[in-house]
Design goal:
By secondary structure, this protein is of the alpha/beta class.
């Protein structure tokens, strides 16, 4: 309601076309830009600011002009701190200058200098804007000259354009000028690709939709965004088809490699399907029944991480209004979906994917040229051959991406990149291994026999056959992934999987013919467990019993009795035949001194402290060892601590620990 009132007031003010009002608006915009530049340039790590958007053009329409900034960061800057500072800057200034945009709209425009130089994904949109003369230098280091963009980069910019049209349509799509800008931007991109018929189709559409008037008139004219979004989709689909027909065709067949071992547990898939189908019903987009489809590899370069190995995708067709249907689906995904849920939506001749991240729902176009394997799998009746030019460019891009990933795996093999402030590093093994499988699927889709692996079983058997000297590693990696995804109760045998995975990925993506890493799996660290106790004999007994149940036993246990007067020593001695345990008595009360006693007596590579009133899980020491083996730079590791009341009646202290002491680090 408030936004609608503001739009009406804004439309009225611009419609007056009063010079005084224009002067006030111009001063307001200019001041907002000056303040924004001053605050951003003061952030340590920001080395350049560049403007793009309608405000920086000669005929920008005041009152409805985009101020879009490209923010260049130094490679050595602590990116988390810098981005948080930028977020605060945008959030604070939007209260006075709402036209500068929100952080959610700007986060993709924050890039590293190395990314720009190496033409990585995050800088592609900037490279296209540079090539088309749409970027203005505002502060800091000048941008390097653009040597021109490939067809792939222009095609990806069409994806960005359609995504932008959808995300901004609810706030600006009721004004005709919004669609004129998107239609003309699309026409410029298609002209760079030499698609003359599609450019003429856009010009005809502009005339038909009455989008040829001057900006002030279009700004004050209200439209129904759904119809314009549909037309924009149709024009983009026509352009993709024209580009396809203009190129020499190259048929790239794929061999599907399946395995009876694949797939998650039926209950997990059933619950996920029930959840997603509920989201679809709530969205009411006039769709067909959701289809549980086998896993999909989304392209030759592993960029779109929306389809996981072993997990089917959910495909539906929107037969109603595309814009409102997609918006309702996005809203319900945000409310009801879980992190990692994805839905593929067919809008006319194009596919979109909605993915639930931790804090937002991402919407992306699945480009029919750049992601032809998806269309080939989902619509076998369509012409899904890949133009030679596009295929070769995709392979070149994939080669660069795999080389970058190989270097990144090599860099992270022995150490983790440190930020300039104290922090915790939390690695999700499931996510790390899942991403590795995703990368390998894309790698083998392009390489050799062009296999598409639908599950970890078939991929593992292929890797074992190709690299028999590393068979143990590949099988243990699959076993661990199955354990992490709830399909197996068997815990992993290897303690060094994480680091070996990085070594293997580095070699595979670099094109190594032979990989032999099984001996590295046997690497281990000796662990000494340190316990400080005082007058808790029975609690100590429970702790020592849990240490007897470890999947990876302690090499040494040092118990320091800090002046007990109960039967603590007797309890310790009762475990001498079951555990490698020693007893030390330190009469002076004081935990720091008692811990120093442990440090002086312990001989292990790692010292794991636990309290005398704890019961440790069976995987505790195994997890500790895996954590220290993965990086040379790891000094301290920690994990979750769950509080359990000892008495039936829960006290206030129990409630406090339950609420506020769930995690120790």
């Amino acid at each position: 309601m408030i936004a609608d009132v503001c739009r009406r007031i804004q439309r009225f003010v611009v419609g007056l076309d009063n010079p005084c009002i224009h002067s006030v608006l111009s001063a307001w915009y200019s001041q907002g830009l000056r303040v924004l530049l001053a605050r951003l340039s003061a952030i340590s790590g920001v080395i350049g600011l560049y403007g793009t958007g309608s405000f920086f053009k000669d005929r920008a329409l005041l009152g409805h002009s985009d101020i879009d900034l490209i923010i260049l960061l130094d490679d050595d800057a602590p990116s988390i701190l810098v981005q948080h500072a930028i977020f605060r800057c945008y959030t604070n200034l939007r209260r006075i200058f709402p036209f500068i945009g929100s952080w959610e709209e700007q986060r993709d425009n924050v890039i590293l200098l190395s990314e720009l130089r190496s033409k990585h994904a995050s800088s592609r949109s900037l490279r296209v804007r540079l090539a088309m003369g749409d970027v203005r230098h505002l502060w800091g280091a000048p941008l390097p000259e653009c040597e021109g963009c490939s067809a792939i980069e222009y095609l990806r910019e069409i994806d960005v354009l359609l995504r932008s049209a959808f995300l901004s349509a609810r706030s600006h799509g009721y004004q005709a000028i919004f669609w004129q800008r998107h239609f003309r931007r699309l026409a410029r991109l298609l002209a760079e690709l030499g698609l003359e018929d599609s450019v003429r189709a856009i010009e005809s559409a502009e005339k038909e939709l009455d989008l040829l008037s001057e900006p002030r008139t279009l700004f004050t004219r209200g439209v129904k965004p759904g119809a314009f979004f549909e037309r924009l989709l149709g024009l983009a689909a026509q352009a993709f088809a024209e580009f396809h027909t203009l190129q020499t065709q190259k048929d790239e067949p794929m061999t599907i490699a399946s395995s009876s071992q694949g797939g998650l547990a039926g209950g997990s898939i059933a619950k996920r399907q029930e959840r997603i189908e509920r989201i679809i019903r709530l969205s009411d987009i006039g769709d067909e029944t959701a289809i549980s489809h086998e896993p999909l590899t989304l392209g030759y370069a592993p960029r779109m991480f929306y389809s996981w190995i072993d997990e089917p995708v959910f495909l539906l067709s929107c037969t109603g209004d595309a814009l409102s249907g997609l918006a309702r689906l996005k809203q319900n995904m945000r409310k009801h979906a879980q992190t990692g849920d994805a839905v593929f939506v067919r809008l006319r001749d194009l596919l979109f994917v909605l993915f639930r991240d931790e804090s937002f729902v991402d919407v992306q176009l699945v480009n029919p040229l750049l992601h032809a394997p998806v269309y080939a799998r989902l619509n076998t009746e369509a012409d899904t051959t890949i133009p030679t030019r596009v295929y070769e460019l995709l392979c070149e891009e994939a080669n660069r991406e795999f080389a970058r990933l190989s270097a990144q795996y090599d860099e992270n093999t022995n150490s983790v990149k440190k930020e300039s402030y104290a922090c915790l590093y939390i690695d999700d093994d499931r996510e790390v291994i899942r991403d590795a499988y995703h990368i390998l699927r894309a790698y083998f889709l392009r390489e050799g026999p062009k296999l598409e692996f639908l599950d970890t079983g078939s991929l593992t058997e292929y890797l074992v056959a190709e690299h028999p000297a590393s068979a143990q590693f590949f099988r243990q990696l699959e076993q661990y992934y199955r354990y992490l995804t709830g399909r197996s109760e068997t815990t992993p045998e290897s303690r060094n999987l994480y680091r070996v995975l990085h070594i293997v990925m580095h070699q595979l993506l670099a094109g190594a013919r032979e990989i032999a890493v099984d001996t590295l799996l046997q690497n281990h660290l000796s662990i000494s467990v340190g316990v400080i106790t005082r007058n808790r004999a029975e609690e100590l007994r429970e702790l020592l019993q849990s240490l007897c149940r470890q999947s990876r036993m302690a090499d040494e246990i040092v118990v320091v009795d800090n002046g007990s007067t109960d039967g603590t020593k007797t309890v310790v001695e009762s475990f001498e035949n079951e555990l490698p345990i020693s007893y030390e008595f330190y009469a002076t009360p004081g935990i720091p001194q008692a811990r120093n006693t442990v440090l002086g007596k312990a001989s292990g590579d790692v010292i794991a402290f636990t309290d005398d009133d704890c019961v440790v899980s069976e995987e505790w020491l195994a997890a500790v060892e895996r954590a220290f083996l993965r990086y040379d730079a790891v000094g301290i590791v920690g994990g979750e601590v769950h509080h359990t009341a000892r008495n039936e009646q829960v006290s206030a202290v129990d409630r406090y620990y339950e609420m506020f002491h769930n995690v120790k680090a």
